[in-house]
Amino acid sequence: MSAPVPMRFLGPWATLSAADRAALVDRSSKANSTVVRDAASLVADVRARGDVALREQVRRFDGVELESLEVPRPAMRRALDSTPRDLRRALDRAIRNLDSVHSAFKPVPQRVQPEPGITIGRRPDPLDRVGIYAPGGRAAYPSSVLMAAVPARIAGVREVILASPPGPNALPSDTVLAAAQLAGVHRVFSIGGSGAIAAMAFGTESVPRVDRIVGPGNAYVAAAKILVVGDTAIDAPAGPSELMVVCDATADPDIVAGEMLAQAEHDPLACVVAVAVGVSVAAGILRAINSAVTGAARRDTVLEAFAGQGGVITVSTIDEATDLVRNYAPEHLLLSVDDPGAVLPAIRNAGTVFVGHSSSVAFGDYMTGANHVLPTGGAARSYSGLSTADFVRWTTWQAIEPAAARSLADDVAIFASSESLPGHAAAAARWSASR
Question: Which amino acids are annotated catalytic?
Answer without folding.
Answer: 331-332
